[in-house]
Amino acid sequence: MSAPTVRVAGPADARAVARSLRAFNLEFDDPAPDEDWLTDRLATLLLDDTVVLVTERPDDDLPAAFALMRLRPSLWDDADEAYLAELYVRPELRGQGLGRALLLATVDEAVRRGATYMDLTTTNRDEAAVALYESVGFDRHERRGDGTDSYYFELDLPR
Fold first, then answer.
1. Which residues of the chain have pLDDT under 70?
2. Domain ranges of the chain
């Protein structure tokens, strides 16, 4: 398989990303806001401090995968930090390297925008994500909960 094309999404992509984000939440039995509300929210966020990267599928109007990253000023550095809020690969497309390509592109985009640090959280329920983040070099810190372990990952980015 050739390397997927990853691009930065714009407000015009908000509905497709909202539909994908809802599918992600429903897959893990998490609450999912109304599609119209989420579309409007994403369109607004994409104009500010939120970056969404998507991989395309020529035969479909939904992204094959997407990553949603929020930039925020660092307390400890005169730079931004990047929070990877979401990374999702459609179930039927997993195992083809899309998640890795998307994660690496997201890290590159964070560096390009001047971020010096990236963090994210996930749980032990998403074993593939845990393995992916660790394989890319994120440090994992654990917090136990009621039946679900929450993992906090962090990565220093190159300057």
1. 1-2, 58, 145
2. 6-156
- Both structure tokens of 87: 């990374």
Predicted pLDDT of residue 76: 87
Q: In angstroms, rounded to a whole number, what is the distance separating the alpha carbons of residues 101 and 19?
A: 21
Task: Tell me which amino acid residue 86 is.
Answer: E
Radius of gyration of the chain from its Cα atoms, rounded to whole angstroms: 15
Strand runs labelled E in the chain: 6-8, 50-55, 65-73, 80-89, 115-123, 139-144, 149-156
Q: What tokens were used for 103?
A: 């994660």
* Strand, coil or helix: 110: helix
**CATH code for 6-156?**
3.40.630.30
Q: Which two tokens stand for residue 15?
A: 């509905």
pTM for the predicted model, two decimal places: 0.90
155 closest CA partner among 106, 97, 96, 98: 106
24/88 Cα distance (integer angstroms): 7
Give the separation between CA 73 and CA 27, rounded to whole angstroms. Answer: 32
Instruction: Enter the DSSP assignment of 11.
Output: G
pLDDT at 131: 95
CA dist 107 and 135 (Å) reads 14
